Amino acid sequence: MNPKEYKMRKEAIALTYDRNGKDAPYISAKGQGFIAENILERAKEHNIPIQEDPSLIELLGKLNINEQIPEELYQAVAEVFAFVYKTDQLAGGKK
Question: Which GO CC terms are listed, alphabetically (predicted)?
């Protein structure tokens, strides 16, 4: 999917992980259209950084809510969490 198609078909996926746990991150919310807008709005309300990656959205979109990410996506998702961590540190917060 090219970036123009992504913007026309708004999608959002929320990832969650337990920093102290040993489980992989999992899909905590996902949706298109109005639901995607709601997910993004809630992230903004809670000062959660948002990263746009249409290719990753396409891959993660195949997973179900509460499903852990598969091993082949660990690197890509680790980059997302590194982005979130760095953004949070630059903002002076701690999540």
Answer: plasma membrane
